[in-house]
Amino acid sequence: MPKAIRRVRSALVLTTSLIAVAGLPSQVWAQETAPSAKAASAEDKSGTDSPDIVVTATRRELRLQDVPLSISAVDGERLSELGARDVQDYVLTIPGVSFTDASGGRQTFVVRGIASLGAGATTAVYLDETPLDIDLRLFDIARVEVLRGPQGTLYGQSSMGGAIRTITNRPDSTGFAAAVDASINSVHRGGAGGDVNVMVNVPLVTDKLAVRGVYYHEREAGFVDNYAVLDRIPGEVRDPSSAPVTPTTLIKKNRGAHDIDGARLMVQFDPVERLSISGTYLWQKDHYNGLNSEDTDIGRGRLIQSRAFDEIWGTEVQQYNLTARYDAGFAELMSSTTWNRATGRTARDVTYVFMPVFQKAYDILVNDGQNVADLLGAPSVNERTRSHQFTQELRLTSQGDGPVGWVIGGYYNNYSLPAG
């Protein structure tokens, strides 16, 4: 029987934004720019922002200091100096921005304290012109922009708190370029990790056509040890002040290691002066060999867990994007078409959640003193997911230095998930 398809999200949004950039009363202008100036001042001291960075968070190119919104940005050179490997490494330096990590790649960004009580996100995450929900590596990146919300008009869904945009370096048709970056690291009382990153840019037709490829591999070391605990009673709720359960047999060390493999392939084609077409393919695979969670009743102060098997979490994402821009003089017309496919797998040990229930039922029905865990083995929750997403955006943005700027656009998103 074919699987049913549950349409989780299918939306068409038309937006119009009218922005007065001059001729405003001076008091109103001061009120709008004060948050931006304050943020820039605070972050200039820490060296994360530069007023000379050109950003496109408002859907037009402006210097950071000229954007009449609360925005932070950092370029690729500064990201390298900071040693930032992913977006989290940067955004945690920005006032008013935080993120939660429930292990296993489950991360949520929160801007201005606006968080969702449900499963939906309140901060939009973008790669160039495309919504994206993966832990992207920050290699060969032009800049990262954090725009405080609400930004529903310019960014649509999930942007009540704001938007985080990662802008990649585009293919350069004027010359060949290549870069290699590698590092190793270790965690105190944990495992070893490191990363390797490679970029190659090849011009095919001068000033017309170029290809840029990026590959990266990273291992984030695990640091939680998995023990078999013989004197721990399944489902027992222990008094935190009581003596900790004694770990007995070490099964595996340094659980929770995270392996990331990914690649980007970009093609830039400029057939005529006013038309630019770019295509991007993105692939990334994440795998956790166990979750880095601690069982606090097994030797407090030690990073230890007790699992009957290696819990796993993994995803694989493939994304195709085609973006075209046409300069009409008075405005720029942009079209971005994206198709995304993602698969995921999780396996969780729930022995200490369900086994007490099973044991109680067995004792009532049979009552022969048998340990039901020996009969059933370790209960687990296994899940496989597969999703598809199609996104189309059309946008017409005014150009020039006139007193009024405007943006007119349409956004369509269809997200499907096999059910059952």
How would you describe this structure to a colleague?
- The protein folds into 2 domains: 1-22 and 178-420, no CATH class; 23-169, Ferric Hydroxamate Uptake Protein, Chain A, domain 1.
- Helix content is 14%, strand content 50%.
- It has 6 helices and 22 strands.
- The chain has helices at 26-46, 76-82, 87-91, 152-155, 351-365, 372-376, and strands spanning 4-20, 54-55, 62-63, 71-75, 97-101, 107-111, 123-127, 130-131, 141-148, 162-168, 177-186, 192-205, 209-220, 224-228, 249-255, 258-272, 275-289, 304-305, 312-327, 331-349, 380-398, 404-419.
- The strands form 5 sheets. Strands 1-22-21-20-19-17-16-13-12-11 form a 10-stranded antiparallel sheet, with no helix packed on it.
- It starts with a strand and ends with a strand.
- Residues 1-11, 15-47 and 230-242 have low confidence and may be disordered.
Structural classification: mainly beta
Question: Hey, roughly how much beta strand do the residues contain?
Answer: over 45%
What's the helical proportion of residues?
A: 10-25%
Strand order of the largest sheet: 1-22-21-20-19-17-16-13-12-11
Element pattern in H and E: EHEEEHHEEEEEHEEEEEEEEEEEHHEE
For the secondary structure, the number of strands is: 22
Low-confidence stretches: 1-11, 15-47, 230-242
Radius of gyration: 25 Å
Give the termini distance in whole angstroms.
11 Å
What is the overall silhouette? elongated
Q: Average pLDDT across residues?
A: 74
Count of runs of 4 or more consecutive helical residues: 6
Count of distinct structural domains: 2
Largest sheet features = 10 strands, antiparallel
